[in-house]
Design goal:
alpha/beta, seven-stranded mixed beta sheet, three-stranded antiparallel beta sheet, Aspartate Aminotransferase, domain 2, 10 strands, 346 residues, 2 domains, 42% helix, 14 helices, PyrdxlP-dep_Trfase_small, Aspartate Aminotransferase, domain 1
Length: 346
């Protein structure tokens, strides 16, 4: 909040009216978001879950098909309590269950019709993974061949430009619509946007009202988002590069553990997974002890994913501005201190 207040004069003239039911600063945020993504228009939503539901139901009405092809590890399936079915009357099919985005062949061979192909970029629960740009282009083309529209769950789309080697308009331009988050990657207080053709966004605004998203004032969230676009968005490629340094140092530090994984080996974004052969509680307690005793925060909470191998836990690592201060040697030393707090396996 202190950073937000300090940066506010550069992000928006607060001598102007802030917002009332989505005008003022919220309208400016929508304009800038659409411009950054190369889309005709964008609508602000209080949550990404709401933005996704509205986008998918609008496309279902337009295509005449309420089936969404998506990934079983996607946010839609894992983190939204089946809202697409319970609230919006949609159903899903899965071109693949592999821990990656679907290929063009899998989309082309899917055994039933679908109206929308939804792609989460990056696929968070598979390890923040991305295809290469040619693969993504082919997958989108396969959906078009099946007369489907393409929607991007781009909560973290902001950080994909390094991996793809493309700008945001070229990436977003592959799809018919895209959702982006203002707090994931950008460090905002919350909020999201749905961007796409002006006619779709106009329709989405009507559904936003019906879903309870027409909030009287949201200027603190919108202001934080503008600050994030100004300050964090330009730094994301730097974070991605540093994440690769951190991941490499962790691989070296854990070489004597036996089985472990840093996934992906070279991170696609500034976030990645670490897997170790210990119980989640022991790893979380060691993370806290390291912070207390060494004043070093290397990892946060660990968990044992459902369906994963027994006795193995995973945590997610995010490299942002504080991580830029760490050298590879700093990471190796912190990881060694962390391992000393664990009971040797076996």
């Amino acid at each position: 909040m202190r950073r937000l207040v300090a940066a506010a004069p550069d992000a928006y003239d607060l001598e102007q009216p802030v917002d009332m039911y989505g005008n003022g600063i919220v309208a400016e945020l929508e304009r800038r978001t659409a411009e950054l993504l190369g889309m005709e228009a964008a609508a602000f939503f209080p949550t990404g879950t709401m933005a996704q539901q509205v986008a998918l139901r609008c496309w279902a009405a337009r295509t005449g098909n309420a089936t969404v092809a998506t990934h079983p590890l996607g946010h839609l399936e894992v983190h939204e309590r089946d809202a697409y079915a319970v609230v919006s009357g949609l159903r899903t099919v899965h071109p693949t269950a592999e821990p990656r985005l679907p290929s063009a062949e899998e989309v082309a061979d899917l055994g039933e019709p679908f109206g929308t192909l939804m792609l989460e970029l990056p696929l968070r629960d598979a390890g923040f993974v991305l295809p290469d740009f040619d693969e993504l282009t082919a997958t989108v083309a396969a959906a078009r061949e099946r007369d489907a529209v393409v929607h991007l769950d781009g909560a973290r789309l902001w950080e994909t430009t390094t991996h793809f080697g493309r700008g945001l308009p070229e990436i977003a331009g592959l799809a018919d619509s895209v959702y982006v988050s203002y707090y994931k990657s950008l460090g905002g207080l919350g909020g999201a946007a749905l961007a796409g053709p002006a006619s779709l966004v106009d329709e989405a605004r009507a559904w936003r009202h019906r879903y309870g998203g027409q909030v009287i004032q949201q200027w603190p969230v919108a202001l934080a988002a503008l600050v994030g676009l100004d300050q964090e968005l330009p730094r994301l490629p730097e974070y991605v590069a540093q994440a690769r340094v951190v991941a490499g140092a962790l691989r070296e530090a854990f070489a004597g553990v036996g089985w472990f994984r840093v996934h992906p080996g070279e991170p696609h974004t500034h976030q990645f997974q670490v897997w170790l052969p210990y119980a989640a509680q022991e790893l979380t307690e060691a993370s806290v002890r390291l912070a207390e005793e060494e004043r070093t925060m290397l990892f946060r909470r660990w968990r044992e994913p459902a369906g994963g191998p027994p006795g193995v836990a995973m945590t997610e690592v995010t490299v942002a501005a504080p991580g830029l201060q760490w050298s590879a040697q700093d990471v190796r030393e912190a990881a060694a201190a962390f391992l000393r707090l664990l009971t040797p396996p076996g």
